[in-house]
Amino acid sequence: MPTGGVNLASFFKAGAIAAGLGGSLINPAKLITGEDYTRLTETAKKFSAIVQRS
Fold first, then answer.
1. Which of 29, 34, 43, 47 is the most buried (most CB within 10 A)?
2. Alpha helices in 1-54 (DSSP H)
């Protein structure tokens, strides 16, 4: 499971089955504290789409 500096598409095409996404990439605490659930959902959808295409 790769973490840090992850190019999701490349790692999943190479056979990874999971990846760690750090706070500097998505900063969920800031989105949750700011109650920006729409942006949090959009970010999750983008990552999911990358994984599904790979």
1. 43
2. 8-13, 23-26, 28-33, 37-53
**What is the radius of gyration, based on Cα positions, of the chain?**
12
For the question of whether the overall pTM of this predicted structure is more than 0.70, the answer is: no
Q: d(Cα 43, Cα 21) in Å, to the nearest integer?
A: 11
∠ CA 36-43-50, nearest 5°, is 170
Q: Which amino acid is at 50?
A: I
Question: Which tokens is 35 given?
Answer: 């109650």
Q: pLDDT tens across 30-44, in order?
A: 777 877 788 878 888
Q: Which residue has the tokens 């760690």?
A: 20
